[in-house]
Amino acid sequence: MKTSPNGIAVLKYFESCRLKAYPDPASGGAPWTIGWGHTGREVTSGLVWTQAQADAQLTTDLVSREQAVSKAATVPLKQGQFDALVDFVYNLGAGNLQTSTLLRLINANDMTGAVKQFASWNKAGGKVMAGLTRRRAAEAALFTGSSGADAIAAGVAAA
Description:
By secondary structure, the protein is mainly α. Helix content is 57%, strand content 9%. The longest helix is centred in the middle third of the chain and has 22 residues, at 51-72.
């Protein structure tokens, strides 16, 4: 399965694209980030990309996130569910998904319970972050079948 335009719209809205590397908002340092939320050893203070570099890296980064979701989910997913989980992994990492109650409920086919789990992933450095509250609300909306635009609106309204 591949991320749909709805999933990419949500991801791009919440990541936004910055062509100059910036520090993690929670730590004020590592990991440094550039483009559409890309992190890695090559991302350091002062790094600058073109829009084409940022867009190409997003395409590359999505592949590993899609593979992580496909591997972790043992039940068939609807497109919106897949998109929401790819965004979750893009933001929080595959390890967090793999050990989460969210995934356990999904794999138990308890989608109603699973959707409620998104809201609990709104902290960074132990602090509730408004941006994460909004993003998790958008993911929950995607998960339940909303369009990208409606999911973004649900996220914006959440905090």
